[in-house]
TrEMBL record:
UniProt feature coiled coil, ranges: 101-130
Highest taxon above the source species: Eukaryota
Name this polypeptide is given: Uncharacterized protein
Keywords: Coiled coil
Source species of the chain: Daphnia pulex (Water flea)
Amino acid sequence: MRLMQSIIVGEDRDTVRALRAIYVREFDSLEKHHDRYVQCNAPNCSQDDFDGEKDWIQAVIYDHQAILAKCDDYLAQTYPKSTSVVSRASSRHSSVSSRQARIHEAELKEKEAELMLQQVEDETRRREEEDAKIRRVGFIES
């Protein structure tokens, strides 16, 4: 995961904050997709299936919270020190272009993540269609 890698290698705060925002957005999307998956499959699920789904999402949420806690700790440790007005003014120009590059990189990563999410959704849809066909064939044979 890119967020944890950036923390491990000690990337700058702006990059970590951008990756954190993307991570949170992706997790929210995953939660919504999981909820929709469970709702759509409710008629075909046993109580054990529901318990398994509940256990899975709880484990994912726990991991998500642990990663965000590590990220928040890192951001707290790297809180920018106050700098003099002169040094801020002189570094402002170089930091603007650097920030723009990081923002651009984060946007590219976000688009990449959206593409991957779309691929997962497409694969899920394809599997659901195959499962429906298999259930129909099994129903016809019985």
